[in-house]
Write a structure and sequence with these properties.
By secondary structure, the chain is mainly alpha-helical. The chain has one domain. The protein is built from three helices and no strands. The longest helix is centred in the N-terminal third of the chain and has 52 residues.
Length: 91
């Protein structure tokens, strides 16, 4: 009888490891898609900024890597802090 329980334990352990592998792969895909979307959003932001200011895309990136970026970073940190105070769950 102990062989049965040993085999059952090993089977359940393998199933859990498999589920973990599948979850990890799915999570990796989700992160990669999120990164792609973030990069697209940033590129669109630079493009819109360059159009609004009537400057080149490269100039827009240079401008936004200095004072505008610092201000944006501060606003982003405020936004993140506000989000942490909310008791939001996606479940």
């Amino acid at each position: 009888m102990s062989s049965y329980w040993q085999d059952r334990f090993e089977y359940l352990q393998e199933q859990l490891l498999h589920k973990g592998d599948v979850f990890f792969k799915d999570l990796l895909v989700a992160y990669e898609l999120a990164l792609i979307n973030i990069e697209k959003d940033i590129a669109n932001f630079y493009l819109q900024f360059s159009k609004d200011k009537n400057i080149s895309y490269v100039e827009a990136k240079k401008i936004l890597t200095t004072s505008e970026r610092r201000r944006f970073q501060m606003e982003l940190e405020d936004y993140i802090a506000k989000g942490r105070t909310l008791k939001y769950s996606n479940k």
